[in-house]
Amino acid sequence: MKKILNTRKIKWTIAGIILTAAVCFSLLFYFYIIKDLPSPTRLVSASIPQSTQIFDRNNTLLYTIYSSKNQTFIPLSYIPASMQQAIISIEDKDFYNHGAIDIKGTVRAFISTVFKREIQGGSTITQQLVKNSLLTSERTIIRKIKEALLSFAAEALYSKKKILEMYLNQAPFGGTAWGIEAASQRYFGKSAKDLTLAQSALLAGLTEAPTAYSPQTNPHLAKQRQIEVLKKMYQQKYISKKQLDEAIKTPLTYQQISEGIKAPHFVLYVKELLVQKYGIKKVEQGGLKVITSLDLPTQEYAQATVSAEISKLVSFDVGNGATLITNPKTGEILAMVGSRDYFDTEHDGNVNVTSSLRQPGSAIKPINYAVGLIKGFTAASPFVDQKTCYPNPTGSPYCPVNYDGKFHGVMQMRFALANSINIPAVKMLKANGVSDMIATASAMGITSFTDSSRYGLSLTLGGGEVTMLELTTMYGVFANNGYRVDLHPILKVTDANGKVLEEYKPKEILFAKKILPEGVAFIISHILSDNGARELEFGPNSELKISNFPVSVKTGTTNDFRDNWTVGYTPDRVVAVWVGNNDNHPMSGLVSGVTGAAPIWHKLMKHMLEGTKPRLPVMPTNVIGKTICAASGLLPPEESTPDRCPTRFEYFIRGTQPAKVDPGRQKVLIDKATNDLAKPDQKDNVEEKDELVVTDVVGDRYCITCPHPE
Questions:
Q1: Three-state secondary structure readout of 387-428
Q2: Do 606 and 548 contact (CB within 8 A), yes or no?
Q3: Helix (H) and strand (E) counts for the chain?
Q4: Catalytic residue among 82, 91, 420, 650
Q5: Residues ≥6 apart with Cβ < 8 Å to 697
Q6: Are 442 and 470 in contact, with CB atoms under 8 Å apart?
Q7: Which of 1, 39, 50, 579 has its CA 20 to 30 A from that of 609?
Q8: Distance (Å, whole) CA 7 – CA 147
Q9: How many CA atoms lie within 13 A of 170 on its CB side?
Q10: Has 362 been annotated as catalytic?
Q11: CA-based Rg of the chain, rounded to a whole angstrom?
């Protein structure tokens, strides 16, 4: 009997525990899920959004995202079948065949994300409708549970056609356009009922990322997305192969948008950053107040300068220009001019060149030489500027040439970099290694260089694409004496209730990451500011010289004349300028480092320096100065004469200064393949020369050596 009572007691205890757990779970489920769950009946009415305003650093309004949605509800019968089919094809191909949640789609998305590492959405149109209209875009488990519950409720209340109608009327299509009718008017200036197949596919592709796929700002991405939608429609048998081909070939003309926007490229750049962080609904309806780093007077001067100067380059077949001006100490963007005219849609003026991938030409060289300084080379290390070819496993040997088509004999690093001579730069990269240059570039802010196996020695001449945003960050490291400060275009964001969501305090740069030794940054900056050192190619009074201000500057021109750059900096400002053509066709060969971007850069940098005093860079304690022989880079003999050893002054990182005395002329063996000093045991492919040769050694490695030019 006692045993039976104990058994019953255990059963009742277990039942009590289960009941208690159920009650607790129910309470938690109610308070965290059910209590604040919005009613699905709200899907048939639109909530009133609040405008988001974007200001410059001085509280001047740049752009207002309207406080009320540009939204017009139309019945499904007014929406062309092509539009309905396009949205179903790209967003939820089994929409009419599953319930509120597509189990197969969810599993497929999970497998793709976890095992294939390919992000793939698994939400149904019903779920997206609920998320867009009733919930936030926060990525939490609770939000997903609410989304699932509301989706089941919506499918119980409304038919599939009604849900599709509500989705098409409430989906975001970019800017103030919510719903297909507003989108059709915004982009094509017509009612949704008149949309063609090509136009429907374009609009259907916007809903996933309206800003990223906007045909006004990213026309190439928008076209790719449209083609993707059309192919999905063809695969799902909504259209024929003929319709597919015709729709892809059909040219689309977009209506020009004029919404009182100032600094449009910058504003849309900032908007995209906000969307990535807060979600499109909060940005376009949440009443945010955004203070940016932009200085509108500087922006307007930069825009006017770019537009005026590009108009002077018509004879050089230059169609566009762009500039970025930053404060390197804080990363604040003071001006961003993405093209000569944002509203010139005929020439893709909407495209923001500052965020587009372009080849940098020789503007990338300072990274290569910085790596060389880190490895023990010096600004006095000599290079042989003679014809040199490098084996190419996949084709003809790589034989770099100089911009001026000449060879200059022996050149020390200072003069090779200052005059942007190509062959010494390639030799420098050969000594450094491509992977080391890419690693340093990545640390300095060039994130576009990825797999080092994709690049060869031409990388130092601009063989890898970068964005102006990346290039400006990189030059900021030199301006900051080796410290990297990322760009910060947003200073403060507050919500509709005045709550501060984020705030950037420039004093926090004390925590910036040190990338380069201070001595390396100082020497590179000193070389780039040495007007005398660059006289060989640029002359004494080029556009790179700004009166008596010590400004570091570098030009870059691709060998096919598709991109032309000038990037310069002081401790307080970085100014980057590009000229070229958006469609990438070459400019006239007359455009060079001092006739293309340089005049624009000169005007902008001079404007930025107005009212300031020249500031000489402070020499780090680990940098010393030495008098050296101008040809060899070695110490002058005690009884040196101007004809034997003309001297000059040079800076060195302590420990790398020359210790040997210039030996004068002597017979030496030269490697014919490299034009450098032959190895001690080398007997083949050598020739004897009676010339001055550098025999200085760094570690256990010979410096690149140089026959003395006659």
A1: CCCECCCCCCCECCCCCCCCCCEEEEHHHHHHCCCHHHHHHH
A2: no
A3: 21, 20
A4: 91
A5: 703
A6: no
A7: 579
A8: 44
A9: 25
A10: yes
A11: 32
CA distance 407 to 390: 17
> Which two three-digit tokens encode residue 91?
């967003």
Per residue in 396-439, pLDDT (tens digit) is 899 999 988 899 888 999 999 999 999 999 999 999 999 999 99
Catalytic site residue from 362, 525, 529, 592: 362
State the residue for tokens 């005049």: 599
Place of tokens 């969501």: 501
Three-state DSSP string of 562-606: CEEEEEEECCCCEEEEEEECCCCCCCCCCCCCCCCCHHHHHHHHH
Tokens standing for 262?
A: 């100032």
Q: Within its chain, how far is the Cα of 660 from the centroid?
A: 45
Does pLDDT of 117 surpass 50? Answer: no
Helix residue spans in 637-700 (DSSP H): none
445 vs 387: CA distance, rounded Å: 33
CB 554 within 8 A of CB 334: no
**Nearest-angstrom CA–CA distance, 435 and 440:** 9
What is the rounded CA–CA span in Å between residue 707 and residue 674?
A: 12
Output the CA torsion 271→277→282→286 (10° steps).
-70
- Which amino acid belongs to residue 471? L
Each residue of 162-180: pLDDT tens digit? 889 988 988 888 877 888 9
Q: Cα 427 from chain centroid?
A: 28
Contact 652, 685 (CB under 8 A): no
- From residue 230, give the alpha-carbon distance in Å to each of 198, 219, 234: 8, 16, 6
Residue 451: other Cβ atoms inside 10 A: 8
Residues sharing a CB contact under 8 Å with residue 146, sequence separation 6 or more, in sequence order:
33, 37, 135
Please answer whether residues 439 and 455 qualify as being in contact, where contact means their C-beta atoms are separated by less than 8 angstroms: no
- For the chain, give the number of residues: 710
Strands 289-292 and 52-55: parallel
Regarding beta strands 665-671 and 686-692, do their DSSP bridges make them parallel or antiparallel, or are they unpaired? Answer: antiparallel
User: Which is nearest to 595 in space by CA: 305, 402, 299, 310?
Assistant: 310
**Distance of CA 407 to CAs 121, 381, 385, Å?**
57, 18, 6
Q: Largest alpha-carbon pair distance within the chain?
A: 121
- ∠ CA 120-126-131, nearest 5°, is 75
Measure the CA–CA gap between 284 and 307, rounded to whole angstroms.
31
Phi, psi of 146 (to 5 degrees): -60, -40
Measured in whole angstroms, how far is the alpha carbon of residue 474 from the centre of its chain?
12
Q: What are 179-217's pLDDT values in tens digits?
A: 898 788 889 888 899 999 999 999 999 988 888 898 877
Token output for 40: 């699905």
Q: Find residue 333's DSSP bridge partners.
A: 326
Other Cβ atoms less than 10 A from the Cβ of 346: the count is 7
**What is the distance between the alpha carbons of residues 34 and 97, in angstroms, rounded to a whole number?**
28
Of 318, 386, 364, the residue nearest 583 (C-alpha): 318
Contact between 340 and 321 under an 8 Å Cβ cutoff? The reply is yes
358 touches 466 (CB < 8 A): yes
pLDDT band at 219 (very low <50, low <70, confident <90, very high): confident
d(CA 540, CA 531): 7
- Choose among 380, 366, 376, 565: nearest CA to 482: 366
